[in-house]
Every structure is written in structure tokens, then in C-alpha cells.
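User: Structure please.
Assistant: Input sequence and predicted structure:
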Amino acid sequence: MSFPLIRHRRLRRTEALRGLVRETLLHRTDLIYPIFVTHGSNIKEEISSMPGVYHFSLDRLEEEIRDVTAAGVQAIMLFGVPETKDAVGSSAYDHNGIVQQAIRSVKTYAPDLVVIADTCLCQFTDHGHCGVVHMNEQEGTAEIANDESLALLGRTAVSQAEAGADIIAPSNMMDGFVHAIRSALDEAGYDDIPILSYSVKYASAFYGPFRDAAHSTPQFGDRKTYQMDPANVREAMREALSDVQEGADMLMVKPAMAYMDIIRMLKEQFDLPVAAYNVSAEYAMVKAAAANGWINERSIVLELLTGMKRAGADLIITYHAKDAARWINESGV
């Protein structure tokens, strides 16, 4: 029995035909741009491991916001590097903390820009962990105090909402953090502020450049007791399900490139928007290869981001956002 030759290539013959039947379309409104704000004045300091990404002091923040909006990016995520740190990360929930000041400033420059506040303690604690640490001096061990940390995370979220954050994005991976933050926001009268939960955050080797940028490297131990084992899949579904039940409005997978199977599983399992975080080392690898002339940066970036969207990401947090938005604009999409 013979079969007719099926000519799949008929729909690939021209750019117009390929565009007509394209299944996945990357748009600039899919992109969220992370920004690092620091203390001091007149600071625009490039992060050595993340070319093109900078620390900005508050007085230099407006120029970055103008650049973001000019590119057509409609959402940012703010990270703060405080002047002082302590054991409980008190500057994370200070009314005049660096993130809170940055939120208010951004809302002055660009009131329609969606401002997402990362909600964690690691950048603000002197030990670099995402919660309160109890030390056992006799045994030489340290333990994260989960429930004690939740109260401080709730205070942080409320202070960020008071400052004008449009979305709260808790990244701490404490058990019950969505419920604690949702309760704190509701009790403070911010029941209309959504939570973008870092639901599935792996204990990944891809975070190195970010920890340099945020000055958040743990001073002892690691985060494997509260971030997820990269080998686990079913656990990711349990983590996401608990966040949905606790009141999350959006779910995130972090990192993105090595976890596209997880993005797809969340997309198929839940009816909430799914975000992918294209993290710092994923960005740095592309920038390093492009600097050496080994790859075409534009083509690689757009292909990677399209792959994340094809896997199921509705939103993509990426340090490539400004460049990608401009490239998309140039293509007329």
C-alpha cells in the first residue's frame, strides 16, 4: 500500500506563510524586567557577571524606567540592596526601605507601569538566608524558623503594597508563605493586590550572578532545605497545588531553561497564569557566548523566550526584556 507524499513544506515557503500559521507568538507584553536598586547617590554600576544589567541608586532610577517604557516593556520586578542588614532582615519591611522608596519613585515616573515587588528576606539578612535563622552553638548547626519567618514576610508584603506595588511576588519558599502573605494583605486592606508566587523554585546552580547582584549569597550552608531538589517533578505539583489552595493568583517556575517540562505541567494542571523566570546565569551564558562571537544574540534570545512561551509561560521574567521588546518591535509584532 502506498501513501501520498505529504508536503509539510508548503506552509514554510515564505516568511508571510510561516507567519500566517505560526502557533506561538512572543509579544513584548509577555516580558517582565528585573531591576536592582541600591543605596547611595549617582550610582549606575554594571554588574560584572551580568553585562548590560546595573545597580541604580534612587536618583538614577528614573533614566532606567524611561528606557524600560520606551522599549515597550509594561512590567518590572524590583530587588533592593539595602545599606544595612541584620539577623531578621528588618529593612525588608521598613516603610522607608530601599524597595519601598523605589516603588514610590517608579509610580511617580510611570504610574501605569506594573510594579512587582520581590518579597523575601535574603537580600536584607546579614546571614543571606530567606528567613529567620536559629543557631545551635553546641552542635554548630543552623535551622530556618519557618513560622517566625512567615510573620516577617507578611509585614514585608504589606509595606510593599502600602508603597504602591501592583503585585507581590514572594520568593522565599517557606511552607505556608502564600497563606501568610494573603492573610496579612487582606487584614491590612489590600485584598485587591495579587500574589505571583514563586511556587516552584529549585535549589539551582543558575542563581550565581543574581546573588552577586543582590548581595544575597548565604554566609553559611545553602538553601537546599527550603528550595526544591532539581531532580523532582511530582514535588513541584504539590508545591504549586498548596499555593493555589492558599490563594495564589499566579504561579512561577524558576529557573526556566532547564525546567520547561515543569512549566508545561503547571500550565496543563492549573488554570492560573504561569510565569517563567529566565534567571541570571541563563542570561549570563548567552551574553558571554555572544561577546565571544559564538552565537547570534538576537536570534538565540528570541528563540529561547519563544520556547518558554511555547512550553506554557504566560509571563517571562527576563534580563533580556528591554532588548527582546525592541527586537519584537522592529519585527512589527
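The two ends are 45 Å apart (CA to CA).
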